[in-house]
Amino acid sequence: MYRILVVDDEKIEREGIKYLLAEDKEEKTIFEASDGKQALNILGKEEIDILLTDIKMPHMDGLELTRRAREKYPDLKIIIFSGYGDFSFAQEAIHYGVTDYILKPVAPEQFEDTMAKVEQDIAGKWNQEKQKRREKDFLKQYFLQNYLYSGSDKILEKAGEVLDLNEWNKWHCAIMIETGTDFFDSAKDVLEEGIFKELRREFFYLNLNTRQSVLLFFDMYCDYTLVANSIYLYLKREYEVKFHLAVSSKFDGYQKLPAVMEQLDQLMEEKFYHPDTHVFIVEEENEKAEPGDVQDSRLMQKISEDVSRKDMAQLWKHFYCLARKYQESGQFSAMYIKFVFSNVIQELFVENRFGGEHKLEKEIERLYLCSNISQILEVTEENIKAYETFLNRSMSESRDEVSAVKNYIYENYREDLNLESLAEKVYLSSGYLSFIFKKETGMNLNRFIRVVRMEKAKEFLCNTNMKVAQVSEEVGFANVSYFCRSFREYYGSSPESYRKGMGEDEEHSEKI
Q: DSSP assignment, residue 249?
């Protein structure tokens, strides 16, 4: 899109030029001024690509405007209009570096040709700059990725030959995004733009591989766990992919980047132990346990986990901790408090999709219209109550889904069963299926699968001559050693010993 400023003291002349510009198919934004002073003011506020100006005007003529504009904006394309009697003025304007001039009265064909030539020059320059940015961005990504994993001084030396490494010193925090599928290569540009629109915060995006990317942020004084939670909610809303995020400690100096990368990798390992946690952060050594002293980010993470687990008792507890903190503090801006509690409401909607996207937008808008903290807490509390009602109603309707999952496990215990695949079978989220299954059966889904497999293994050992390896495969274990260990933990003896004893240790089994 071209941004064009038309300057002429006669309105009818400006309207004529604007009409000719509108005939051009190129998309453009047009500004106008009646003299040179107005034009300079607009040039100072807007990024103008092309200046179209008459020569003779009151207050400041086109010559003076051209001279000043060229001094301040050397890349600006300037086209002047001149009559036959103004030729000496036009020559002087050319001395100041005008791009072209058009004789009055303006002939549409000449105007069209002149504009096409100027626009082509600008487009060519834009393409050159775009190509340079791409090349620089590629080199930046190449050297940075190599340095993150190697920490090699030689990499830094080579990078310093073609890049300004002082730019790397501006980064103070890193957030890693990881998913279990090949996602990032195909989604890079759209993802980067989407996250920027969501955060309205500058960052550098580095695609590590198909399943990992890193965002490097510039602001030292920011709660990046809240930022990570906002990113997670955006990703959850826009993509049908499971994401985990890790937030580094604050750092100063690009020499610390390899250590930051190692820290992020270690944080990501926590998802093995806490699969329902979406954002992993570095634990502060001196973090206090008193609710009023817990950081916002820690409370928000706990609330996110409560929603994921459908744990209403803990959700209410952590909400009241957050509410009490802001009621007693008086140190935070109204906008910041609204941002925090809007994240609470988004957690309720995004995790379980209750109420729909339109309802979410309406509730967020209602919260931002609140004039005091009591109203903010009231709106948030109403949404938590609505969410609790939704869960209770869903629970009464969920017995059929639980029964269907149990029957599927009974019939397909030999297959590779997991929470995600079973949730897809009954069209539920994995978190919600886990919650209702535990509520209905008294045990979590993985334990139920294990019980079914162990009971089937017992039947095969007692009623057939199948070898232990065959039994292991028949009940869904790919690894015989793991099967034997699981069997011993469950029944208190090895499969061979159990078969010899023919069920002496049967009291170890569980009822399902």
A: P
295-314 burial: b if 16+ Cβ within 10 Å, else e: bbbbbbbbbbbbbbebeeee
Which stretches in the chain have pLDDT values below 50?
285-294, 503-507
Cis amide prior to 105 (ω within 30 degrees): yes
Q: How many domains is the chain built from?
A: 4
> Token pair for residue 273?
């132990």
Same domain, 412 and 501: yes
Residues 23 and 112 in one domain: yes
Distance between CA atoms of residues 232 and 264, nearest Å: 16
pLDDT at 472: 94
Query: Taking a C-beta distance cutoff of 8 angstroms, is the pair 453, 413 a contact?
Result: yes
Q: What is the mean pLDDT of the chain?
A: 85
In sequence order, the 6+-apart residues with CB closer than 8 A to the CB of 503 are 458, 462
No. of helices (H) and no. of strands (E), the chain: 21, 10
Helix (H) or strand (E) holding 3: strand 2-7
Q: Measuring CA to CA, which residue among 192, 179, 189, 175 is closest to residue 227?
A: 175
252 φ, ψ (degrees, to nearest 5): -140, 115
206 in the same domain as 259: yes
**SS3 label, residue 74:** coil
Q: Where are the alpha helices (DSSP H) in 397-467?
A: 399-412, 419-425, 430-441, 445-463
